[in-house]
Input
Amino acid sequence: MGKARIPVVAVFDVGKTNKKLFLFDEHYQIVFERSARFLETEDEDGEACENLESLRLSVFDSLHEVFRRDEFDIKAINFTSYGASFVYLNESGRPLTPLYNYLKNYPKDLERTLHEGYGGVAAFSLQTASPALGSLNSGLQVYRIQQHQPGVFQQIKYAVHLPQYLSFLVSGQMYTDMTSIGCHTALWDFENKRYHQWVKDTGIEQKLAPIVKGDEVFSAAFPGSTYKVGVGLHDSSSALIPYLLNFHEPFVLISTGTWCISLNPFNDEGLTQEELAKDCLFYMTYAGTPVKASRLFAGYEHEVQTKRIAEYFNVTTARFKNIEIDWSVIESLTQDRDIPTELGAFETVDLANFASYEEAYHALMVYLVSAQVASTKLTFSTQPVKRIFVDGGFSKNNIFMNLLARHFSDMEIYAASMAQATAIGAALVIHKEWNSQPIPSNIIALRYYRA
Output
């Protein structure tokens, strides 16, 4: 008899830059990992976009590789990827167009026509809980195809978001999941819990695959396979799942990276005009309940400003990696002055004001955290939050975490670390389909910061 095979779940985590495949064992330890990067290709306008064909081949390649390995028994497969990207499939499941980049410029006249037909941009954005973001409102991408490429639109059997396309490759089933509809797509009417009227009126609703919850699984399309296939999840919503399953008291998660997204799953109070203007929106959990969210481009701002400081003081940006907080510097920077809450405020600060790169960096963090606090507060509601979890890049930043704890002195502030939160979320959501053990309570490592 050979060695017993390890029961595992396979999760594809498809980011803009890195495409990863993980195998998790029943204790959510990574037992196998494979990473790939592809060259981008171009759409018909010569703009850079994801290479769908490379992605498709890579999914099958990686699966073949892990299925060949005797030590693993793959029980289930799931997918998570960035949102706001539609794949248009014909009757036989072939993509009809490139995977357009969600940063592609959107024709202003089209956007205006749509908004004006449904009460103007403010009312439209409020109903769909989607700030007007052009192509980032992925529903508008489908509208553009309908208006500008009617021949292609006619051939579309279903338009599905990227995570569901990946799932379809393995299950042969086309479905729509709630977390993908829920991320600023401009498709969903949050008050009436259905597609917005414009989606019906334009006939686009018929091109959208049937909706299922995020914990849905299907059988594999390959004869003789016994593993289950998840429907796939939008990455920001996936990263929230481990927290939802572990913590039941009201909390906010600040997921930090290029964007810092504050997510409050305990607030479903409607958006106001002012909140929308400040980049608030709703996401949805895998079960279809709303999550109030606010976005701040803080990781990007941090990168730009640390470069500026490094150049001015003639040091490398590596110097900023492990700076510990110096409270005396913080006191001198913040005493008797109001720190602006606008994200870009630091770029007008003259670096000649600072004696050293450490002092300048402390000042940058004071400004960044001030903007972050204002952004996170937008997600608060009448139900008081007891804890704030920070994961991603800033959770490892000593100054950021300490300043945040000082601002929110009446709450518990934790730096949360979990290797591959997004992928683990996609594994956890289908836990019962592949795992014979209870969900472990120690998946998330927490570090407490005192005010």
The chain has two domains: 6-231, 247-417.
